[in-house]
Amino acid sequence: MAQTPAGPGVDAFRLPRPVPQVREPRSTSNDTPMRETPDISTEVGIHLKLETSDEDDDYEDSLLSDSSSGLEDGFPPSKKGLPISQLRTGLCYDERMRYHSEIAATSGENVHPEDPRRIYYIYKELREAGLVEEPGVVPFVEHPLLRIEAREATKKECLLIHTDEHYEFVKSTAEMSDESLIDLSEDVTMDSIYFNNLSYFSSKLSAGAAIETCRAVVSRKVKNAIAVIRPPGHHAEVTRTMGFCLFNNVCIASKVCQEDFGNECRKILIVDWDVHHGNGCQGAFYNDPNILYISLHVHMDGKFYPSGPEGDMYHCGAGAGLGKNVNIPWPSKGMGDGDYMYAFQMVVMPIATEFDPDFVIVASGFDAAAGDELGGCFVSPACYAHMTHMLMSLAGGKIAVCLEGGYNFQAISKSAVAVTRTLMGEPPDRLPATGATASAIDTIAKVRNVQSKYWRSVYPKEPVSGSFEGERLHDIIRQWQAMHLYDKFKLTQLHVFRDTVSKSFDQQVLASPNYEARKYLLMIFHDSPDLLFGSNSGVTTQQKPQDTWLVDGVQSYIRWGVSHNYGVIDINIPEFITVDPNTGSSSYGESGGYENNNVEYSSNQTDLARREGEKLASYLWENYVEPYDFPGGIFLIGAGHAFHAVAKLVSENENVYPNLTGIIGFISTNPIRPIYNHNHPWLPQWYKDNSQIFVSRAHSLWKKDGKASKRYGTLVRSEGLLLNEMMKLHEKEVFEWIAEKADVEGDEDEEDEDEDDDEAEGKTEDEEDAVAVKTSGDTESDNDTRNVLGETATANNTRGESDGDTIDDPAETETARALDSTSHQFLVPVVQSTDGTSDEGATSGGGGGGGTSAGVATNTSGPNNGGDVYMTTE
Ligand SMILES: [Zn+2]
């Protein structure tokens, strides 16, 4: 309503505060037409009558009278008025929580991030937004925030979560000398904490503030509330302080509310959107079936604070609490609005809705906010508002937001105001169109898979053993592909002996008829085709096939090969590979990433699956290629993670490359694998001269300075992002390159000319065999010959083992951001129309779309087993 502090009418609406004036609704006569809604803009300060039970008598309305017969049958009577939204939003803030501070006054860069001023800046921003009522300050809103008094939590309350020893320890700090407090703060076992003599008091006040805030919401003294409190709590464990946290505020408040309100507040949802995992909350309620803890946090494979595996997605609770712990662990920093909205739509809200809590508490760190250095993420105030808005749909709107971390004064203030305005009833600001990143989509898919065991509304589910005869979609797709490739090109299966390579490769290898008698051979190793998902309701995450599209970039290559009389062998590398149980699970831990010895091909924790791919490649070479003669030449194509098999085949089998004419690679966000062999020092030069490795513009490679070694081949920057998109984008280029190579077999001078120039240039800057990188695609007109990755080549020449030596790519964030704007996909409907004359089916947009690029295989942080692994580190 009135936003300006001056002008006619303003004084009038100020009068009734702070006690809301309750008047009769202006018009309750039986014949008020619908259109005659009371115009309250001219009569500010009018309040609709609150519903009371004795008013049920005059439950009549002209709108109903005509057709009243039976209308009420089976429906509860409509509620009258807006009893809940009339209530004010609560605010708990007490400046005495600022007393907890570092003893040694530090300044500049040494100031501890958990700075007492954090809560002051939030409060100040709320006041400046006109939402707060305090002496001498005129709020800009009719119903300003209702102040909730903070108080110290009692010992009894703290002991609902913490041990007596822990409580007594914190208490003892109140009496310690400054020297011992400083010593204590430097004690590593305290894990990121500082104390002064008032820390005990402030932390009890913080916990008490959380309690009173939650109690005010549950008891409906306020509509909902925000507690601007510190020190934070979500890292504090049952037995110890940790990560700036002394007592676990939201956990204590949860327990107090359960005790005080019984059935009215039995099931509590805690959503923790602090950028760090709330290890304290998870630990406190791990066995509790009545408290659902959902945390979204940066995890980085356990390398981000608080470190370790506890924050991974496989920690789902235990005992009675199994399934009541949901971790959404981001694999890297850099997550943004699209990722958080996607997580809310696909995981948080479906699960929260199914849980149906009596009360919602947000452990609201604002350190995932844009501008927070500790978090390194990009969540905007508007996004926090949207998340708040979604959670407000739960528990009849009973939601309390309690501050946790967040260390950039600007970011936390703006975010807190956005959340508070939303709590007060203001719609969230619009979010600019934004898509989830590939790594978020990948993470969410895995979280859903894990959580689908515990939640009816979450899909996909593992097939119930035997009863459904469930088949993996990728098997079905491969069968369809095989059929289709037979129909079109008469491709048939090459037999692969099970005892030699994984059974996962059954039916994955197809070859064109009499391929072995052709002049040329084209061997294509590629990842499974992508699925694009269309619309989804969000309440359940079940995916319908009619909204799902199969994207296959390989077909045009097969068609080209077959139509040019090449022998074609098509090798599909499934996303999951069944590995030998004897080499598998033991090293991988119980909660680790796979079951039934199914290992993800792109896994960054083990290369067991990729080793199966290597075996397959050698097997095919030995049995289906080597015995025959292809006088025109042999070309290998490796697309996506499958490129690994190509690189290994060439690197480790000395007799392979002399028979090859060229190698094509397509790398979107997966690591770039080198090709080299210590016994053949000239192999990298050969590779560089005879390869085209297309690398997505979003790959972290392009962000590095320096030069890439020849071992990575001739790297070509692609304007594409998704694998299939890249394959489509460069197909002409590739066909021409292959044709040219095939023609000039044995005579390579002319075509290497310009590259030699580049190389000469590079060598002046770097003693190692540096290559210049050539740019392809036309959007960037600068003839971008910048060099990449200086030390790459020298670092690790002696290593021969599997995965150490890659140019890795966790740059998925940018990939998906960019994807958001690049909507052209190449879609092939899952069910091919029978009259399809062209199998290209490149209808872009289609029913798919949805802005998301599901199924993009991403590799966030590659194999990190030493060697020159290149990662985008923060
Ligand atoms: Zn945090």
UniProtKB/TrEMBL annotation:
Residues 843-853 have a biased composition (Gly residues). It catalyses: N(6)-acetyl-L-lysyl-[histone] + H2O = L-lysyl-[histone] + acetate. Its EC number is 3.5.1.98. Residues 472-742 form the Arb2-like domain. One of its GO terms (biological process) is epigenetic regulation of gene expression. Pfam families: Arb2-like, Hist_deacetyl. GO terms for molecular function: histone deacetylase activity, hydrolytic mechanism. Keywords: Chromatin regulator, Hydrolase, Nucleus, Repressor, Transcription, Transcription regulation. It comes from the Eukaryota. InterPro entries: Arb2-like_domain, HDACs, His_deacetylse_dom, His_deacetylse_dom_sf, Ureohydrolase_dom_sf. It is found in: Nucleus. Residues 64-73, 833-842 have a biased composition (Low complexity). Belongs to the histone deacetylase family. HD type 2 subfamily. This is histone deacetylase.
